[in-house]
From TrEMBL:
The keyword Transcription applies. Pfam families: AAA_lid_14, GAF, HTH_8, Sigma54_activat. The lineage of its organism: Bacteria, Pseudomonadati, Pseudomonadota, Gammaproteobacteria, Oceanospirillales. Residues 188-215 form a coiled coil. Residues 217-446 form the Sigma-54 factor interaction domain. GO terms for molecular function: ATP binding; sequence-specific DNA binding. This is GAF domain-containing protein. Keywords: ATP-binding, Coiled coil, DNA-binding, Nucleotide-binding, Transcription, Transcription regulation.
Amino acid sequence: MSAISVEELLATSVALATERDIDRLAQQIVLLGCKLCTADGGAIYILDITKSHLEPKAVVWQGKPIAIDYATDVPLREHGQFNTQNIYSYVAFTGQQTYIDSAYQFAGFELTEVYQRDQLLKCKSETLLVMPLRDCNQQTLGVLELFKVRNGHSSSFREVEKVAQAFALQAAVALDNAMLMAMNRHLIQVLDASNRQLEAENKQLRLQRKSSQNYEIIGESEPMQQVYALMDKVLSSNVTVLLRGETGTGKEVFARAIHQHSDRNTQLFVTQNCAAVPEHLLESELFGYKKGSFTGAATDRKGLLDEAHRGTLFLDEIGDMPLNLQTKLLRVLQEGEVKPIGENKAHKVDVRIIAATHCNLEEKITKGEFREDLYYRLSVFPIALPPLRERKEDIPALINHFIKGYCQTYGRKVTQVSPAVMDILMRYNFPGNVRQLQNIIERAVLLCDKETVILPQHMPDQILLDNGAALEASDELPVYTQNELPLKEMVQQYEKKLLESHLRANNWNQTQTAKVLKMPRRTLVEKIQRYRIHNEV
Ligand SMILES: Nc1ncnc2c1ncn2[C@@H]1O[C@H](COP(=O)(O)OP(=O)(O)OP(=O)(O)O)[C@@H](O)[C@H]1O
């Protein structure tokens, strides 16, 4: 064996201690092992993560790494038994440093991998040394094999036993460190990935919470849930939204909510009703003007589109916008450009448009009153708001919301509506939708001087009339078309139905019903017994 210089030993130590990549380290180990023990070649096998196989990691021949494609994994167990036939798995299993001096005469182990490699390298292995690589807890990490080929003067590895052992120990420590680091890196990656996933999920959850709870819009009914789901989709984009719905369904409320929950919420939410002002005024409102561009234009004036720069412009009643302005608006949507009246050049604006309409735009297009191209630009993301009569389950929550608000405004102590009022309002069709309900409650709160409950007499006459008509039309009261009964009986039947209906509306509370019907409670009880009226609750 050629003597190893101190420098070479130091260089070996440094090389092993500094390499962190397992594949490169495995190659270094074999290269250095060959050099220290004057081997012609060598191979390293490392235990896989399931600790069931030894995987070939690097093979070196005459000082150079060669491809390891020929080598296959070596199982540690076969048929449930430890695979002690194979030299690598034997060493891995027993931890015994093993020497073979005449590979082709030796019958103690299967040396299939060795013979295969010899065929590939066109040589004949003569002496072999297979060493276990174990960590400080004596757990096997892999095995290192060194070999010398038959060349007439090859010597046994036994001569370098001590050097080989010391080297294997050092190599195992380096390998253990590198594996721990790789494991750490892997864990950090897994943690990072799961953190990113958690962050994304949290963001999504925050958005969902916003949608169902934080829009500050009253209504939990199914049709409203569908609207919230659509709103969620447009919050993080600048897409133009078209809100459609009857008057008073809350189009402005929803437009404001979209702005407030979007990235633009630090900038202005500007509104303009396109039906409320004449054409020339609407144009100067929206686009602004230059000083002197028309009589009365004493100074330059910014339009609302510029006011809403980086914010949102809500255009209510878009269906009533004059055709000339529709063309100008289309340019804003297509080019993001605004040209104030009297100005030669257009300038860029960054504004999100939310438009609203209660009218049938498709019909207006057919009549030539609305530009089809503008319609397509505006209705990139239409949201239809349901009329109140299609989400009556939201009426009680809206009533409470408005009662609270108006009690604060007017200093009243109203807490609720009577069951009869609730019944009347639940029956009503609300052509004016939420706005109409809001007005009804405002009026009722104002009418309640000392009362804490809103009663039928606080309802507008029209609502009571409509309610009476609805009651008559419903099955709850008998409608006689023929005089098949004497009048007295007809009146009695009518009285019975009327009492039933009021009792139901007052939640079968007899005192309350008697009060509403302005009759003594005792008389009501007598009639209930006489007509055999039964509480349905
Ligand atoms: N879901 C709701 N929760 C609480 N208040 C609402 C709701 N929807 C509407 N409102 C109230 O109803 C009134 C009418 O709403 P809004 O002005 O947004 O309706 P609109 O559809 O824009 O009406 P129009 O078509 O007449 O312009 C407002 O005072 C608003 O505060």
